[in-house]
Amino acid sequence: MSQMPQLSACPSCEEPLESGDRFCGACGYDLSAVPARPQDNPTIAMNGAVPTQCAPAGAYPEPPPAPPAGAAWLSPGPDAPAPAHLPGTDSDGSAPPPHAPPPPSSPPAPAAGVRFDRPPQPGDHAAPEAHPTQPDEYVLQAPDPRVSADPAARAAGAGGKVCVACRAGRVDDDGYCENCGHAQPRERDHMEQESGPVAAVSDRGLRHHRNEDAFAVGTTALPDGSPASVAIVCDGVSSATRPDDASLAASRAASESLLAALPRGTHPQQAMHDAIVAASHAVNALAEEPATAREQAPHQNAPACTIVGAVVTSGLLIVGWVGDSRAYWVPVDRGAPPARLTEDDSWAAQMVAAGLMNEAEAYADERAHAITGWLGADAYELEPHTAAFKPDRPGVVVVCTDGLWNYAEAAEEMARVVPLDAATHPLHSARVLVGHALDGGGHDNVTVALVPFPAVPQGAGSA
Fold first, then answer.
1. Average pLDDT score over residue span 445-452
2. Is the pTM of this model over 0.70?
């Protein structure tokens, strides 16, 4: 029988709890309904076999040390078995060794253990958004006929931009058209990037007033000269302060850490663990900035975000995550089964793992998206999850936020919406996946990165 987790605050009303309480004294919430965190050691079969049961924490060997100069850590020995599958090793087990981030200069308030990764809904006990939601449509007035017939040239001559709505007015320094008053699209409303064979697309969606997701993609070379691809995706926690800054800081820090460590010969699984720690430090630092103090007054939550990343080499696939952003494996040969490579840090995932609900029931609950792990100064504790895999066939890794997987949750559903040529046309395919989420309602920010496996030599990309 599993023990009730020790919580410092009620997951429902966030009121402080006394040690040993079974029910919340403020709202009467049954604390035994929140099961203990499951062990994180996902084992995914990558050759069409039935996935095996997860092994206990620490059951897997440590990743090999960095190779000597000129040697490649990926080279298997002559007696090595065929790379059918590789059990994932969580970094709170024997490998990689855990690294706790240094505490901030002033200790944050105790966390409640859960946080809603979306704007507050009726019945939630989370604080409201700091910014009111803007209307989706604006009534545009007709362009002033006295405006020059060539507004683009006129605006360019004045050192400004032309309004995307009326195509006549100049955009002022605040981002509004001087003619029709239309707010111009912000840089992060829609972002696309292609780095060699890796591509990512992020969109604000149809309901949010800003894009709180961020991503970073890149390629590098290992010490033996073989290619490696990197993708990081972060989702800002909407109920927190400055979620957009948190996701941007985390994605940049993690990407920079990986792209610096891999060429030095650091094992990719260790490099991924260290990258998540670096991202955590970057988000923690935001809590001490003056901008956070100005915005934090309405709701005392430090900047926070989730993170998921992938490193792909010529024979190895590594994923790492904290929160409920996900990574999926979709083989090029659709006759082989796809797989989800990550396990959510969320209320719903814990209910399913404890056997108290099936997935359909858990994710239909209003508490489903209450996350139990995130990056931020007020996080319970930092638990970077990492897992390693050796696929035996070509495929593509889908790295995404819940703004996409909410519309293709199961691995089979994701495989159906990923274009067949995703491994050779990742940017186009990422656009297709974002479009799938927008067509489904676009209720959240949508971000997806696609990484072909095996890694493609630098210089190759979308045709």
1. 98
2. no
